[in-house]
Amino acid sequence: MTSPTDPTAAPTPATPPVPGTAPDGSPGTVARPDPLDTALRLVRAQTALVKRFDAGLSGLHGVSLSDFTLLLHLAQAPGGRMRRVDLAEALGLTASGVTRGLAPLERIGLVTREAAARDARVAYAALTPTGRERLGEMLHTARQVAADHFAPDRWAGEDLTQLTTLLTRLGGTAPDHRPIPSP
User: Which of 64, 70, 69 is nearest to 52 (CA)?
Assistant: First the structure.
């Protein structure tokens, strides 16, 4: 490991100052935050939020945030079903990852496997009536977890709007984003 005074150490890239507000509130220039630090903070924030959702959803419904997200994608799809390959793409998973995620949901009757009428090689994952009903209950819990996390005493409306805009810029929504169903 190299020390900060080691002449062979790679130089730390300088971050140029950017227009902004100084700590005392006056206009001026502030140092641009380190992009890696920013990215790592985002990862830690995401991890903390996932833990909150997992705790709420698993405690009441026996599912993880990943399971909930998978069910939500199916609920938003036309007819409540998607080809497994399309579901994998939408979730950012491999086909085998989707298969592993669907297996326990199939066992408990929330999702079923359907073959395409015209091509038996194509498999669909479909939300069952029980899955749709349970998803409604999960949506209530997920909305409560989100409301608690982004409580008005901690987050102003304009802060949430700005965060939503920034997350969208980072790719936080799909181009074909559909509204989240009501419970």
Answer: 64
